[in-house]
Batch of 2 targets.
Target 1
Amino acid sequence: MIVQSPLKKHDIRPNLRKVSLPDNKSSSPKQRRTKHTAKANSKIGLPKVKPWKVIVGSIIIGALGLLYLTHVFSTQRLLDEVQTLEAEYNRARAQYDELKLRYDRMIGPAEIYRKAEEQGFVNGGPADKVIIIKKD
């Protein structure tokens, strides 16, 4: 509740906002807005899609999905094959390294000297000695 004193009546500023009263003849502003927005909504709406386009789109998406799944399964199968071949290669490489090490030990200098001594050969010493050949 607002109480005003008669003495301060002249200090009150007038209301600058003017409110128009609705006419009884014309439609109310609320009705005018609904008619206007109804027209705007009909223009903004999504375009109509025909059923055959939806069916064709669904078939195309299904075909692409099937191709994708086929690709995924074939890739997994190839990955399994590659892993199997890689394991086989690693086993063959390990066997090769083992045989090469054994071969290198067999032909290595220490092994050759040992086998020569077992057969009765005498170590000639360092190779820096000069060999003199006498002619008869």
Target 2
Amino acid sequence: MDTLNADGTWDCLGSIAQLLHQAAAQVWSDADEATPNSPLHDLGLGVYLAHSQASALLPDDYELPDDDPLPNLEERTPLQLLTEAEELTRPLPLHQPDLVHGSQLVVDLCDLIREARGLGY
């Protein structure tokens, strides 16, 4: 039995990855409508990179559950999605060797939340 997933760690990280994927898609959509030098492009890249960080923490054989644990993602703002993702990091056992880079994800999420607030999300 995978001891890290016994407490739902991988499922929590999978949810974080889903939230960040949706947030990145929304920010990139807004950036497509903005001017080429809009700070939305930087935010979109940052959210995309955070999504990649979260996904990289998951085991190679991890599959998202079939039932959608996070319904109505499209109805949430990027700031709401980022905030929810950050909140989901709080119970993660970041002291475990498999999650050694999880602390950087938390720091990056906090930076992205601050940046999103600054951009009016």
